[in-house]
Amino acid sequence: MADAPDPAANQPAGYVPPKVWTWEQPSGGQFANINRPISGATHEKELPVGRHPLQLYSLGTPNGQKVTILLEELLAAGHAGAEYDAWKIDIGEGDQFGSGFVRINPNSKIPALVDRSVDPALRIFESGAILIYLAEKFGAFLPTDPAKRAATLSWLMWQMGSAPFLGGGFGHFYAYAPFKIEYAINRYAMEVKRQYHVLDTHLAEHRYLAGDDYTIADMAVWPWYGGVARGDAYGDAAEFLNTAEYTHFNRWAAEVAAREPVQRGRLVNRGSGPEEFRLAERHTAGDIDAIRARMKAAGA
Fold first, then answer.
1. Is the pTM higher than 0.90?
2. Is residue 95 assigned to a domain?
3. Residue 152: which of 164, 136, 173 has the closest Cα?
4. Dist CA 41 CA 39 (whole Å)
């Protein structure tokens, strides 16, 4: 039988996991102020409601971008019923723990959607569920052919299952943890590199993830994996992971990034970047137009 690990080699030195874990101190890292081991509301706060049928409560993270990209794609395709109000949920300030938000999503994660075009209004949470709901509601970006639909949903679920290793695993330990841990960074960098290779190998033989059709699978994967490769997340992670070597993936990522609705959708509910280029709320197409005009004038 192998010898038990020496606690002196643990981090911190001498640490031994207790028989039963209890929450006795902040977890540390960038999001320590909002992390807690219980669910539910921490304060009373009702959510605003705009004039459009769809009310989105979100933030311009990769998960939030998935939905705003789809909504902008639907509008560009002529689906007027996809007009929406997008309200910023500042997760750094704990907005997701307000009573109104928790009523929509008891898991307190963005994005969350309310469809008020039906009676009673429907609440939908989890980004993948929102993508499927909207695609089915408008009959777009989710093929009806059984094989193509299966491929689309398979890649959508691949993203939902894989991205936590990219964000909560690699991203946390590489960019957000209070100190660098070689073992953790290497462990998650290896898995993320494997995921990029999965995408690169598949896209060597397919234009889009589900084949020839651009679908909600592409909209789900691009903000996460395309965002890191573009340098939009986790500092210099693109260089560290050498994402430039994935030529087929980068061909696909560039094609998706060039789409007008993608460029528009990724601007909504932004919480980072230059203040003048942030769009906290979106209520009309003109809100995005104004931000894009500022960016063009500044050469951004």
1. yes
2. no
3. 136
4. 7
What is the CATH number for 231? 1.20.1050.10
- Between the alpha carbon of residue 287 and those of residues 61, 133, 206, 277, 294, the distances in Å are 19, 25, 35, 11, 11
> H helices of 98-246, where?
99-104, 127-138, 146-164, 182-203, 216-221, 227-230, 237-241
CB-based burial label for 12 (10 Å; 0-12, 13-18, 19+): exposed
pLDDT tens digits along 104-149: 999 999 999 999 999 999 999 999 999 999 999 999 999 999 999 9
Residue 141 lies in a domain: no
Looking at the structure of the chain, the number of domains it has is 1
CA distances from 221 to 13, 127, 139, 264 (A): 39, 12, 20, 17
- Strand 122-125, strand 112-115: pairing: antiparallel
Residue at 67 is within a domain? no
Q: Which two tokens stand for residue 284?
A: 């009309």
